[in-house]
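Thread amino acids onto this structure.
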């Protein structure tokens, strides 16, 4: 029966049938990538992987070495005790609010969180711009590239600032000017300033980073002093305005009870002014003062080298795999384009007559 089937077939069909029957392993190739093939591709390109990873490692070492040290000075603060000020006025408002309302005077409600307000003022644009201008921090903030530990001097970037003539040389496009604006200085200072509050005990940690540990410490001391002075001056001015207002109302009323209220409120505001005059740490009290840091916080040179080497290894493996499968696909295309000589050279076989 089998011979009968073959009698009506050409020689090419006979070869195909014989190939399927006696060589069942001639099946369509599986296009899926197995782990063995991946490992073979990586292993075959191991020298290239080592070379590229080595170059990345050397480049990361050079980059890490050339990065300047950055130091961080920190101070620990606590909220100063609430005395006088808005708290006293709020207490008086609770006692005499009804009488004051009869005279058309609003004494206000509860007190304000001075500590939270001081921290928001500390991070505000207006306060930091005044702070930078007051202490002339433009050049050491925006033109320094490193710090000389031996001479304890800042090293300025001569491309943007001439420290000899104190002139700015920045190459910027209009409307910007060579000298940085207050807004640019504010953004630069906010980048090195951090303020965190411990929710459990309410303590505040303020930190400043800079190339020079001495400057980081000095700026932090100035910052704490200035925020206390700012809040003290604001409360003094507000208390003085309250005294002026209450004095004017005192002259307008003839009620003895109301005059008593006004006298007590004026006394309370006077105490606020006296407290502000004698309190240096008016809102934020220093628990742990800032000191000169001896250890850098940046850069993490070992981490830079490790990440750079890992990046080089990943990149080199991808290069090896892409090159391997590209060459493999190209070889398949060339093989499929070559005609089969066994099929081309065969001549048709005449069909046998029955």
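Threaded sequence (354 positions):
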């Amino acid at each position: 029966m089998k011979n009968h089937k073959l009698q009506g077939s050409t020689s090419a069909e006979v070869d195909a049938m014989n190939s399927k029957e006696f060589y069942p392993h001639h099946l369509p190739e599986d296009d899926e990538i197995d782990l063995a093939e991946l490992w073979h591709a990586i292993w075959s390109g191991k020298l290239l992987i080592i070379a590229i990873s080595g170059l990345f490692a050397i480049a990361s070492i050079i980059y890490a070495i050339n990065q300047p040290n950055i130091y961080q000075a920190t101070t620990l603060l606590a909220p100063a005790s609430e005395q006088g000020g808005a708290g006293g006025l709020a207490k008086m408002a609770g006692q005499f609010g009804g009488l004051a309302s009869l005279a058309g005077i609003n004494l206000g409600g509860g007190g304000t969180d001075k500590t939270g307000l001081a921290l928001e003022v500390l991070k505000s644009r207006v306060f930091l711009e005044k702070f930078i201008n007051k202490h002339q921090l433009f050049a050491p903030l925006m033109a320094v590239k490193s710090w000389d530990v031996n001479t304890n001097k800042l090293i300025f970037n001569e491309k943007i600032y001439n420290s000899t003539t104190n002139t700015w040389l920045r190459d910027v496009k209009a409307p910007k000017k060579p000298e940085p604006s207050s807004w640019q200085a504010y953004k630069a200072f906010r980048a090195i300033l951090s303020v965190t509050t411990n929710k459990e005990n309410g303590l505040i940690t303020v930190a400043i980073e800079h190339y020079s540990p001495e400057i980081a410490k000095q700026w932090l001391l100035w910052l704490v002093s200035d925020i206390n002075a700012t809040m003290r001056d604001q409360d003094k001015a507000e208390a003085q305005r309250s005294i002026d207002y209450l004095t004017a109302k005192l002259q307008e009323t003839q009620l003895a009870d109301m005059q008593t209220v006004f006298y007590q409120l004026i006394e309370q505001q006077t105490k606020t002014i006296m407290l502000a005059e004698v309190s240096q740490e008016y809102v934020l009290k220093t628990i742990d003062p800032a000191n000169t840091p001896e250890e850098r916080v940046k850069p993490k040179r070992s981490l830079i080298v490790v990440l750079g080497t890992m990046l080089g290894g990943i990149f080199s493996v991808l290069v090896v795999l892409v090159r391997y499968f590209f060459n493999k696909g190209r070889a398949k295309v060339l093989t499929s384009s070559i005609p089969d000589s066994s099929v081309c050279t065969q001549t048709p076989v005449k069909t046998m007559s029955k």
